[in-house]
Design a protein that fits this description.
Elements: H1 2-31, H2 36-54, H3 59-84
Helix pairs in contact: 1-2
Length: 90
């Protein structure tokens, strides 16, 4: 049981530590820049990167979803029409 715990918990902890370190390093880099204009430029770059990450998916995905739904409805209608033409109890 101990080996199973080490086998799964250790890689999970390493992955967590790496992800937390990179996020923390991103914030701390600007803090230690001495020149005010450079520090402000660094903060602005960070804000732009965060905004880009938070940006919603492009509208093309939504149009593809709508087109897929429209195609599914057409297919369903064709199936229902063919089912209605089947003679029941002839």
């Amino acid at each position: 049981m101990h080996s199973i715990l080490v086998k799964f918990a250790l890689p999970a902890l390493v992955a967590l530590a790496i992800s937390a370190t990179s996020a923390a390093a991103l914030e701390q880099n600007c803090r230690f820049i001495q020149a005010k204009p450079d520090r402000e430029a660094c903060y602005k770059r960070q804000e732009e990167e965060l905004a880009a990450k938070r940006k919603p998916a492009p509208a093309t995905d939504e149009s593809k979803t709508l087109e897929t739904l429209r195609q599914m409805r057409q297919d369903d209608d064709a199936v229902y029409r063919s089912i209605n033409n089947i003679c029941r109890g002839c």
